[in-house]
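Supplementary Note 2. Why include the ligand at all?

Several targets in our set were suspected to adopt different conformations when bound, so apo predictions alone were not considered sufficient. For every target with a known small-molecule partner we therefore ran a joint prediction. The input for cytidine-5'-triphosphate is given below.
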Amino acid sequence: MANLQGKRIILGITGSIAAYKAAMLTRLFIKAGAEVQVLMTPGSTQFISPLTLSTLSKRPVYTQVTSEESWNSHVELGLWADAMVVAPLTANTLAKMAHGICDNIITATYLSARCPVFFAPAMDLDMWTHPSTAENVERLRLFGNYLIEVGTGELASGLVGAGRMAEPEAIVSTLGRYFRKADTLHGRRILITAGPTHEPIDPVRFIGNHSTGKMGIALAEEAAARGAQVHLVLGPSALATQHPRIELQRVQTAGEMHEAALSVFPGCDAAIFSAAVADYRPAQPAEQKIKKSAEALSLDLVKNPDIAADLGQRKTAGQYTVGFALETQDAEANALRKLERKNMDLIVLNTLEDEGAGFQHDTNKVSLLRKDNKKRSFELKPKREVAADILDELQELAAWKKDGL
Ligand code: CTP
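The joint prediction is reproduced in token form.
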């Protein structure tokens, strides 16, 4: 059971059939010790009555910015709250939030809120998979808001697929987890390498790999949410991230990544190497585009610096390094050898054997192997939760603060 003792939560309810679950959500927040201020869009009141929610929350429910007798100050509400949760969030309100439209009490409060904002979308399959919805979700994520993933199953329309609002229990435990971890990395500096590297062959071609940078970005966002100052060195990735505590440095090659990592590592408490660094690079990138002529072409490759191994050698007492291993055979033994060779404290092992794990997925399935031979294995989860597990393990082995409440 999550502990939300004394936390002030704004619950925004929008007009989806999933609004019926908002009664249970309100009840669970109250049971966990939170104060809940419910805000509703006019459309949502057709799905569930404000009276139900005001009875459960023990406070008046606001459905308008102004009513006949009062002005419900969205600015004050935004300052009052420790967290704002919009659940269920319709495609319509999502689009408004993504574009700064404030035409009702929820969207106006959202724009004024200084607290963390969580959003639990609920919509039908085709609306959820529409590219504009995906873009709007990504925009909110980039604003630093927290997506509470939709579930998959039967939808109100009778279609079966993704788009169902997360269950109230899952929403409450997401907030519980957030507050438990909130300041546990305050004052720590963490270096994270992420994404692929591109090693130029000539001005238009390169050697690269399928890494997207998702895992490293998830780690950076989770560490920043826990209060750490993060230096994220990101190879060529289509993704971005934005958080006041994440300093994002973009690089192309392993050499540039190495240089960037070397210069910040001395001031860091930990480094996490999630980048898929090219082991070799063309010895002499051609200055002009290589023309097609001979039947075969050989490229001379030379070894790239091993960033994890180099920083592992340089680390001093009180500094920790965490690496990744992607193995296709003898996974555990190989990962442990890597941990030893690169002088790491923790290694995250993933195999490509698991459906939904590794490159290009939003989920991952990992085992964490520690220098002291402790091992923990996890099921397939969203990368953000995998990031939370990795940071929990780092905080435990470094004997840093683990619980904020
Ligand atoms: N790594 C790094 N610099 C490199 C290569 C790897 O920092 N030049 C880091 C990766 O970010 C990862 C860990 O080392 O955290 C292991 O990467 P991996 O490619 O599995 O290791 P390699 O040493 O390249 O071993 P392999 O022979 O299996 O490719």
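The chain has two domains: 2-181, 189-287+296-398. Residues 383-397 form the longest helix (15 residues). Comparable summaries for the other entries are listed in the accompanying table.
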